[in-house]
From TrEMBL:
<dbReference type="GO" id="GO:0003983">
    <property type="term" value="F:UTP:glucose-1-phosphate uridylyltransferase activity"/>
</dbReference>
<keyword id="KW-0548">Nucleotidyltransferase</keyword>
<dbReference type="GO" id="GO:0006011">
    <property type="term" value="P:UDP-alpha-D-glucose metabolic process"/>
</dbReference>
<dbReference type="InterPro" id="IPR029044">
    <property type="entry name" value="Nucleotide-diphossugar_trans"/>
</dbReference>
<dbReference type="InterPro" id="IPR005771">
    <property type="entry name" value="GalU_uridylyltTrfase_bac/arc"/>
</dbReference>
<dbReference type="Pfam" id="PF00483">
    <property type="entry name" value="NTP_transferase"/>
</dbReference>
<protein>
    <recommendedName>
        <fullName>UTP--glucose-1-phosphate uridylyltransferase</fullName>
        <ecNumber>2.7.7.9</ecNumber>
    </recommendedName>
</protein>
<dbReference type="InterPro" id="IPR005835">
    <property type="entry name" value="NTP_transferase_dom"/>
</dbReference>
<keyword id="KW-0808">Transferase</keyword>
<comment type="similarity">
    <text>Belongs to the UDPGP type 2 family.</text>
</comment>
<feature type="domain" description="Nucleotidyl transferase">
    <location>
        <begin position="11"/>
        <end position="275"/>
    </location>
</feature>
Length: 303
């Protein structure tokens, strides 16, 4: 371990510079990360997940048109005062909660891919291991994937990536991991990574999902990573360098996740996330579930 490298992980990088084209026209003027999932914007779930895992310093890598995200995590004193004057402490506490987390912002001037977005966080992160959370992937708060990944990184060193089994015919939509022969259990050694491989060439059905715990050596790898698929600097390509390297900061471990994940970057999965989280909402869940059952029964009767 190099001098000055912290063993405790406290920083998270959340790239939010994407254009959200799959949700147009809804995202023409509103960042996709601000689309509501029940009663909170999607990005708030991601930040709260980082905070639950003990990450107290969050950096968001933004782009043009993302000012609403910065506003959301800023204090709104007038609104808080108006709510408190009405005695509405419940809503006042809700909006204050989103501004009590230490959130910083840096701009990704040119959209050059996920790898470049992570590289934009280099000066803020420094010489520390850190987490990367993608805003399109929501992990249910009852599942503690990020906490497990941080513990694995503390034990094994190197970097850690979250993996999930997907149907074989869908591996070409993801980064795909190759794992060591004979690996058993849900903590595996990653020996290779391929970004969106053809189905017939995929080394496994283990897809990379949007949670990473990375050694700071990743920044050096990203600096020397040429644009890959789509002409962008792919984080997967830089991670492959670490997986196959030797020395300090090398090696890649995969944590196979079998919990509840919501892909809010896809329109259909976004709707599923709203329904699933709405059904489990502490205030709305019971009434919503009852209505949903009646609605589904009624639709079936009309078929």
């Amino acid at each position: 371990m190099s001098e000055g490298l912290s063993t405790g992980i406290r920083k998270a990088v959340i790239p939010v510079a994407g254009l959200g084209t799959r949700f147009l026209p809804a995202t023409k003027a509103i960042p996709k990360e601000m689309l509501p999932v029940v009663d909170r914007p999607a990005i708030e779930y991601i930040v709260e997940e980082a905070n639950r895992a003990g990450l107290t310093d969050v950096l968001m890598v933004t782009g043009r048109g993302k000012g609403a995200i910065e506003d959301h995590f800023d204090r709104h004193h007038e609104l808080e005062a108006a709510l408190e004057a009405k005695g509405d402490t419940v809503r006042s506490d809700r909006i204050r909660r989103s501004s009590d987390i230490d959130v910083h912002f840096v701009r990704q001037g040119v959209p050059r891919g996920l790898g470049h977005a992570v590289l934009c966080g280099r000066h803020h992160v420094g010489d520390e291991a850190f987490a990367v959370l993608l805003g399109d992937d929501m992990i249910d708060e009852r599942d503690h994937l990020l906490e497990q990944m941080i513990a694995v990184q503390a034990e094994r060193g190197g970097s850690v990536v979250a993996l999930m089994e997907v149907p074989r015919d869908q591996v070409d939509k993801y980064g795909c991991a190759e794992i060591a022969d004979g690996a058993e259990g849900d903590v595996v050694t990653v020996t290779g990574l391929v970004e969106k491989p053809p189905v017939e060439e995929a080394p496994s059905n283990l897809a990379v999902i949007g949670r990473y715990v990375l050694h700071p050596r990743i920044f050096e790898a990203l600096e020397h990573t040429e644009p890959g698929r789509g002409g962008e600097i792919q984080l997967t390509d830089a991670m492959l360098q670490l997986a196959t390297a030797t020395g300090e900061g090398s090696g890649m471990t995969g944590v196979v996740f079998r919990g509840r994940r919501y892909d809010t970057g896809d329109r259909l999965d976004y709707l599923k996330a709203v329904v699933q989280l709405g059904a489990g909402h502490p205030d709305l869940g019971a009434d919503f579930s009852a209505w949903l059952q009646d609605y589904v029964a009624g639709q079936g009767g009309q078929a």
